[in-house]
Amino acid sequence: MDLNNFGSQQLNDGSLNQMLEQVGINDVGSFLNQFRNQAQRETQRSHQTSRDEPDDDQPRSGGGNNSLDMIQGAMNAYNTFSGGSGGSSGSGGGFFNNISSTYQNAQKMYALYKQFDRNGDGKITADDIQIYLQEVGLGAASPYLAKALFQTVDQNHNGSLDFTDLMALTALLNKLYGQYGGFPR
Fold it and tell me: Taking the model in full, what pTM does it have?
């Protein structure tokens, strides 16, 4: 299956689940829970580190910046879960290797994410996801694949994703590109 040609038939016939199983994700719900838990642990670790060792380049008040810690936590979880085409761990990186997986790029991704958060509630909708993926260099994903991934990651079916969910979606997409090719360069 060419990811660029993922169409309405594949959206409706469960092809995404079969494709995810082939990259070692048999239970998307478990993958997402593990991703979210890892991001939360990394956020707490980053928050603790920032309290213990203040960074002179980052303004801190009250011992840490929750947004910066959350960005770092989500990025670290992405690095853990987005490894090649195997199981739910690996060396990570994926398309972030193409744009340099630095903390500054995670901040840029978060700033872009916030641009799509039209009402300021910390979430983006399915309508925004294809544009977002194009902006971060994953525009080769078909609109149907973007919609299928959004629906898969939106486990509570509220029609929106937070930043951690978006990073999990990106990790899933990275695994699919690793298996099925067509990875944007």
Answer: 0.74
Ranges assigned E (strand) in 119-168: 124-125, 160-161
Strands 160-161, 124-125: pairing is antiparallel
136-183 confidence digits (pLDDT tens): 776 667 888 888 999 999 998 989 888 888 888 888 888 888 888 765
Domain contains 146: yes
User: Phi/psi zone of residue 182: left (φ > 0), alpha (ψ -120 to 50 degrees), beta?
Assistant: left
**Domain with 121 in it:** 101-180
What is the number of structural domains in the chain? 1
Give me the CATH number covering residue 167: 1.10.238.10
Give how far Cα 111 sits from Cα of 12, 43, 67, 145, 163, Å. 33, 18, 11, 24, 10
Instruction: Name the β-bridge partners of 160.
Output: 125
- Given a contact cutoff of 8 angstroms between Cβ atoms, the answer to whether 177 and 139 are in contact is no
